[in-house]
Design brief:
Length: 328
């Protein structure tokens, strides 16, 4: 008996079944691929369960996605908690600084007001006119302390509001020269020798001249304070490697800055001076940042204090616009 037709039928049936199986398998694999692509964008997506051999793989992938999603949620919650604690810590430091700075003038004002109260009771003066506590000196003291608190509040506004800069063309070297000229007598009184090395070219910036003056005046006065017995103040400019910004170096030959202090010098209200609000460097930092620049403390081998301010140069088109406006 010829079994060839039977074998042929079996072979054809096997091929058909294999084809059907491969088509179904390919469809499930394609569905899994689409599911995995969607899962990359959204971890909440789950693969469609399969009744074939791929079902075990699908279930394992879904369980893995569930675990990863849970871990990510825990990580985000932890990050939010850390950020909240950092905000509270910063707020606590800010409040403590404000309280410390305002306590002294408030105490002086309170003392004077109490003296005035003792001098007048129920509308009757208890002291003679020449002993009147409401003197011109007392009034000047109170007004002076109130002005001091007002200056503290004004400085705090640097951190509480968006900066609005009066942008214009600023010649960096002219700005630095004018500040150093103003400090001329102070440098002589403190026996500080000035060294200038202006190598940057061009030096036109697009910035707020008044704000930039505050930055560099703060760095210069800090440098002079760091050399009570005299020394050298070095001010230098050089073009940065990217040719689109300029670097200004302010260095003194004082005793340097301790590493513990260096890490906090830009924090509001942090200061090692007996007098001062500790807002100078933090305000300078905000001003430079508002100009799309950066200010850094660079430790030196010889222990000197060196600050480097990097500011973007004005583009040629901006310089042309400034010149056009100037000649109108």
């Amino acid at each position: 008996m010829d079994r060839t037709p039977l074998l042929l039928v079996v072979v054809i049936a096997g091929i058909v079944l294999a084809a059907v199986f491969l088509i179904a398998l390919r469809r499930e694999v394609r569905s899994m691929q689409h599911g995995l692509e969607a899962m990359k964008r959204d971890l909440s997506v789950r693969l469609t369960p399969s009744g074939s051999e791929l079902g075990t793989i699908t279930q394992a992938v879904n369980q893995l996605a569930e675990t990863v999603q849970q871990q990510q949620q825990e990580k985000e919650s932890l990050q939010q908690a850390i950020q909240q604690k950092e905000k509270l810590a910063s707020l606590g430091q800010l409040v403590a600084g404000v309280a410390h700075e305002i306590r002294t003038p408030l105490a002086a004002i309170k003392t004077r007001v109490q003296l005035w109260q003792r001098g007048i009771v129920d509308g009757r003066k208890l002291v003679s006119p020449d002993q009147n506590p409401v003197s011109e000196a007392s009034m000047n003291l109170v007004v002076g302390e109130l002005n001091r608190m007002e200056r503290i509040v004004q400085k705090l506004l640097y951190f509480a509001r968006e900066r609005r800069l009066a942008m214009s063309q600023v010649n960096l070297h002219e700005l630095l020269d004018s500040l150093l000229t103003v400090l001329g007598d102070t440098l002589k009184q403190h026996h500080v020798r000035l060294e200038r090395r202006f190598e940057a070219s061009p030096v036109n910036l697009r910035g707020d001249a008044g704000e930039l003056r505050e930055v560099f005046m703060n760095l210069f006065t800090n440098a002079v304070d760091a050399m009570p017995h005299g020394g050298t103040l070095n001010v230098a400019t050089v073009n940065a490697a990217d040719a689109r910004s300029v670097m200004i170096t302010v260095q003194d030959t004082g005793e340097g800055i301790h590493p513990d202090v260096a890490g906090r010098m830009f924090d509001p209200f942090y200061t090692t001076k007996e007098t001062g609000t500790g807002l100078g460097l933090s305000i300078a930092y905000e001003i430079v940042r508002a100009h799309a620049g950066r200010i850094e403390y660079i430790p030196t081998v010889n222990g000197c204090t060196r600050f480097v301010v990097t500011l973007p140069l004005a583009e040629r088109s901006q310089v042309s616009e400034f010149h056009a406006e100037t000649h109108r």
